Target: Arrestin, beta 2b
Amino acid sequence: DPEYLKDRKVFVTLTCAFRYGREDLDVLGLSFRKDLFISSFQAYPPLPEERKPLSRLQERLLKKLGQNAYPFNFTIPQNLPCSVTLQPGPEDTGKACGVDFEVRAFCAKTVDEKTHKRNSVRLVIRKVQYAPEKPGPQPMVETTRSFLMSDRSLHLEASLDKELYYHGEPISVNVHVTNNSTKTVKRAKISGEVNILLVLFFTCIYSKCYNHLQLVSPSSTFCKVYTLTPTLSSNREKRGLALDGQLKHEDTNLASSTIVKDVSNKEVLGILVSYRVKVKLVVSRGGDVSVELPFVLMHPKPSEQPNSRPQSGNSSSLCHYTFLLFYRISLLIIFKHIY
Model:
């Protein structure tokens, strides 16, 4: 309502925030929250130099909502992390730790002016990564262990059936042991681990271990395929486990793997998530022999909408190459006089 705004303007901000401490610990002016990215945009009155092509959704909403609707969009940088939430404990209160994105619209004379809640609206959004169209090579690793006072060795070879898995999909782990030594393998441990790296802070590792009593006698071989299925339902009691950022009243799942083009880039902040399968052999009076197999856990890329506007060749290939890390948020703001 232009009469309600008078000489004020309407601004929209996009904020990417990283909360690394519980909200109830924010005392004495010390906040466990860091803004990784803030971008502001003047939505009303619209600036001529800021006008960009409209999406089909924006065109339809403009026709439906009339002259008091004003479109806008943001561009999210590639180095920003995806939306990730750390699973809170049963006694935790307040906002959970993690990375979240928020779009906020407010009316004020300047963008830096302190605003009242009644003059602003907030919308929580998610930034997601989809699985690449071409997965990597099949993970396979092998190791040989020699023992003291023995010229024979123990050989362990492990592999996965593929590198990329979707959420809820079982993982087949192929284990092959050739025991030419004089030692006896008492047990095999197969575990799925998630590595959570809070950049600039610390690293957490959570694992789900499966013990298999399997004796491998000297001068014998052993081969078996184990199946693991990483799901949130069997890990809801683990505080601090990384989950996909969830919206209000929506369930979620384990956090997807983070794909970063340059891991050494110090501008990459937030939470980085990776997965691996660890195979360990417990040897009698000889220590342990273990190998690790990294894999990728993600959501499949959704099918293209038939009525979506085609992109140019360069931008399309860029989105596919960066796994949808670089995209625009196209929204529409409606001004109404709220009493």
About this structure: The domain at 2-130+306-334 is CATH 2.60.40.840 (Immunoglobulin-like).
